[in-house]
Amino acid sequence: MIKSNFVQRTIYGSIYVVLILGAIFSNSPYLTGALLAAMGSLGIFEFQSIVSINRDRLFLKIWHSLMGLLLFFIVTTSGVEPLDQKEKIIFSLPYTAYVFFYILAELFRNRKSPIREVAYAFAAHAYCIIPLAVVHRLCVDSTLILPENIPTWMSHTFWLLPMFVFIWINDTGAFLVGSLMGKTKLFERISPKKTWEGFMGGVLFTLLFSIGFYFLFPEVLSFLQWLLLALLVSILATLGDLFESLLKRTYNVKDSGSIMPGHGGILDRIDSLIMVSVPVFIFVCIVSML
């Protein structure tokens, strides 16, 4: 049974990694955007399941998840230069209309906590979509593309590579060190298995890998900047994981979903990315201005 679960986890984990790396190495903002938007939409569906909103209305649950795709498009195109202000407003109108429709519909739905329904519904959009859309802005924002520094074969998607790799290495390092020598609980109330030893192991592994990135791409960031990026990702990835654990523990849910057997749901895979995305975007913006 243990061997079967390990094989299953390895297979689905490998598929997930191949999809992410395939999108990154394609250097296509469109392919990367489609993958991130799909992950966000699935995350919205799982978020609704966790907090038990739209539970009896599967169509509305699916529709609300799909409307997240529209929000993703609005956020990712908001900084694209070819679009003028009028076009951006036009693109935003359907989502704005949907928000008003959703609020209006609550007036006619017989719910004990209608405000809770609305709050959680759009909290799902904010939590799952906006951070992933910010990640995609790293691919489409022309001010963040550094032709003289970033390899041309990854000129659009380069920043996603260290972001994802650091998250994965942090998880791996934390698991290995925590399993071997973890004793001091990190946040036992939220995640009983996490330890300070595991956390420090994840940070150390990530910092070591950042040195490898420096030797591979010394023109992109300085040695210190690579270390700072790795440290930022490592700390925030752990916080993202803890926050999703808090969400699941609050509603007594083990996994966010079952789309990835052995791993849980898509939120269980992107919880760290959600927390990391905006600070990394800010970091890259700062680096681009130096």
Automatic annotation (TrEMBL):
TM region(s), chain numbering: 58-77, 89-108, 120-138, 158-177, 198-217, 223-243
Pathway in which the depicted protein is active: Lipid metabolism; Phospholipid metabolism; CDP-diacylglycerol biosynthesis; CDP-diacylglycerol from sn-glycerol 3-phosphate: step 3/3
Main enzyme class: transferase
Keyword check for Transferase: yes
Residues in coiled coil: none
Membrane topology according to the record: Multi-pass membrane protein
Key words of the record: Cell membrane, Lipid biosynthesis, Lipid metabolism, Membrane, Nucleotidyltransferase, Phospholipid biosynthesis, Phospholipid metabolism, Transferase, Transmembrane, Transmembrane helix
The enzyme's E.C. designation: 2.7.7.41
Location(s) in or outside the cell: Cell membrane
Nuclease found in the keyword field: no
Stated family: Belongs to the CDS family.
This protein's name: Phosphatidate cytidylyltransferase
Source species taxonomy: Bacteria, Pseudomonadati, Bacteroidota, Bacteroidia, Bacteroidales
